């Protein structure tokens, strides 16, 4: 199938598009993990987590989405087939988002000992996950723009890693994450984009065309067909985005991204603390344009009223 991102075709020729290389054989060697992270800017692990742990999180999250009508529960909610979203405009999305992010089964994935151990090896000490976690429900037709995480996470320490974790099977044509090989070394990114603060500087996604972006900042796009238990860890300078979800069966993509830093370093107040600020204002993390015409902060954040209900910019389409 022709893969797309941001509605643009991805060139799948071998010199333009490749597979993520698993690093499971380095797991018992912290020094080798650090060297591999320095060299390639990412570490990809197959089956790092027990499949049952991940599928329990998937079930927990999808049941909550089913309450909003986002998932069709006439079959198994675990199939994640898109629903009619009927309840989204009337629901308290602030409470919904809190509930998903703080679910016990979901947190058992983001804070799994196996995930923390990889970050401890990378950071050389005790680590913590950010208080904010980013569970993503990506409907057919949706994806994610190109960016690096640094400018969004850099107000505490710069020594942070992200882990992207599929909550279930995510085949490449159903919205898998992709990284731009060698982009973590891009001088152009280091001289400009990576010096920004996403909120202060009102950062937007980089160019939507994957061919333009790869010519400017790196070499091949890398992705794979992800399986439950896989974990993709990468640094703040790695340019990434997502393939569009082109499911032909209405299947939504469920994944999580979370950040990790050492416990003894300052934390970014946007994402840490009892009442973290996020991107300011009265907004909730609810990715996707849906039919709500509300594309605040790169489609991911939605303005809500005092009852946590969506503030629509125009009538739903
Ligand atoms: O899952 C996605 O679509 C985007 C995730 C992402 O940008 C990240 O992990 O930093």
Q: Judging by the overall fold, what is the CATH architecture?
A: Sandwich
Distance between the termini: 29 Å
Radius of gyration: 18 Å
- Rounded mean pLDDT score: 93
H/E element string? EEEHEHHHHEEEHEEHHEEEEEE
Query: Helix- and strand-based class?
Result: alpha+beta
Keywords, please?
317 residues; alpha+beta; Jelly Rolls; 6-stranded antiparallel β-sheet; 5-stranded mixed β-sheet; 8 helices; globular; binds 2-oxoglutaric acid
Q: What are the SSEs and their pairings?
A:
Elements: E1 4-5, E2 8-9, E3 17-19, H1 30-40, E4 42-45, H2 51-67, H3 93-101, H4 104-110, H5 113-123, E5 127-129, E6 134-138, E7 144-147, H6 150-153, E8 160-166, E9 177-180, H7 187-191, H8 210-217, E10 221-223, E11 231-235, E12 240-242, E13 253-262, E14 283-285, E15 301-303
Parallel strand pairs: 3-10
Antiparallel strand pairs: 1-2, 4-11, 5-13, 6-13, 7-12, 8-11, 8-13, 9-10, 9-12, 14-15
Helix pairs in contact: 1-5, 2-4
The structure holds 2-oxoglutaric acid.
């Amino acid at each position: 199938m022709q893969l797309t991102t941001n509605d643009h075709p991805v060139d799948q020729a071998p010199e333009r598009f490749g597979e993520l290389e698993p690093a499971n054989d380095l797991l018992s060697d912290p020094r080798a993990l650090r060297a591999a992270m320095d060299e390639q800017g990412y570490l990809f692990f197959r089956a790092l987590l027990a499949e049952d742990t991940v599928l329990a999180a998937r079930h927990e999250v999808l049941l909550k989405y089913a309450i909003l009508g986002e998932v069709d529960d006439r079959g198994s909610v675990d199939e994640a087939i898109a629903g009619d979203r009927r309840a989204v405009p009337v629901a308290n999305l602030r409470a919904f988002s809190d509930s998903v992010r703080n679910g016990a089964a979901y947190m058992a994935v983001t804070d799994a000992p196996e995930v923390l151990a990889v970050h401890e090896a990378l950071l050389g000490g005790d680590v913590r996950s950010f208080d904010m976690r980013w569970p993503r429900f990506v409907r057919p037709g949706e994806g994610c723009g190109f960016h690096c995480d640094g400018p969004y996470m850099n107000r505490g320490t710069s020594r942070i890693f992200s882990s992207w974790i599929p909550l279930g099977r995510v085949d490449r044509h159903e919205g898998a994450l992709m990284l731009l090989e060698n982009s973590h070394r891009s001088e152009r990114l280091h001289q400009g984009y990576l010096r920004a603060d996403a909120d202060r500087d009102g950062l937007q996604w980089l160019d939507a065309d994957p061919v333009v972006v790869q010519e400017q900042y790196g070499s091949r796009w890398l992705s794979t067909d992800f399986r439950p238990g896989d974990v993709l860890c990468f640094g703040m300078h790695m340019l990434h985005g997502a393939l569009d979800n082109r499911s032909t069966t209405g299947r939504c993509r469920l994944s999580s991204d979370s950040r990790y830093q050492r416990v003894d370093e300052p934390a970014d107040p946007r994402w840490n603390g009892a009442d973290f600020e996020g991107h300011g204002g009265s907004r909730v993390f609810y990715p996707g344009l849906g039919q709500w015409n509300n594309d605040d902060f790169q489609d991911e954040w939605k303005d809500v009223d005092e009852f946590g209900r969506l503030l629509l910019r125009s009538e739903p389409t």
